User: Fold this.
Amino acid sequence: MVQLVPTAAAANGRPLGGAAFGWLTGLALLLAVSLGAIDGSSMGAIVPAYAVLGLALAVVARVPLGPVDRWTVALVLLFLLWMAASTALAGRGSRGLGRVGQMATVLLPLLLLLPLAGPAERTVRRLIGAVAAVAAIVAAVLGLELLLDAPVAQALWSQNATRYNRGLACLVILVWPLAAAAGPRLALPLLVAVGFMAGASESATARLAFAVGSVVALAALVLPRVTVAAVAAGSGLLLLAAPVVFHGIEWVMPLTREIPASWIERLDIWREATTVIAGAPWTGHGLRMMRDVAPLPPVMSAYTHLHNVLLQVWLDLGFVGAAVAFALALRLLLLSRRLDAAAVPFAAAAWVAALVTVMSGFEVWSEAMLGMFAFAAFLFAASARAAPGR
Assistant:
């Protein structure tokens, strides 16, 4: 770990600068659980903006910054480098490398959140009750909106309930670090409100993510080490073996009466994707270049991504990219051991909720989804006290 403190003389920071940083952090928290819940796409702007402005303000005001995990930074940079190398090896030219550049402008600002968790801790702890209450109210109101067939969305945007799908994903992920920080008295009504919202929605992804997250949280309360180890091993093995697992997805077909209609076609996409992956298994076809693969199976031609993060990493970046992603995921899960023991079940739940969300519904490379994941990790780091010496 590297401790980032501008100068020894600045250990206390400037009072005015510290207050401004606190106000900025509070604004980011409230925007994330309100605007982010209504329109999840806004997380692609809220989180990077807070990271850049927060770091700039902290440096100018000499606010002491928190520790940075060097392995996490190194693995993210390695992942970016392999994105560029894979895309170049696939012969995608300047257009493909331009997409790598766009991804760099998304990921690099998110890294700036790492040192901000330290100075943000005081603000997060002071405001967590109000933020959790706002999140619970937003979730309850959104649940009523969905239960009534989204009359507000139809009146304001002429759209149906799917207008809120990204917002649902945002709250289903952020609810876990918020609940961990809020404590038992506030965590229960918050989880009930988000559960009501997910249950009232037509989004099978949101319902499944919240349900699986809840099961994992309960399991981790009883057997924390075993549950975290099982989550790490299961998600890692599933990532590394994804082409084999999803190539034989036919066994699910007899169960299609129990599967949402929107997922049935995705099963076909995932099966066909494994044949495309076999065309470049080691280095992949290049970042976000699926539509440039020829020949592309007809069932995949109408989509820009696979609705499955595991297969998407393999298709875009090959086995090498999957291995780097596995190392980064393992590092993040290992870092969860530094949290206070009471926060570990919530961290495990957040991990599987995020995994389910990008395994069945959304593109992992989008600014919004990456922003949600980064902000959830930031909240855990800023609010869950580490054990002594960690």
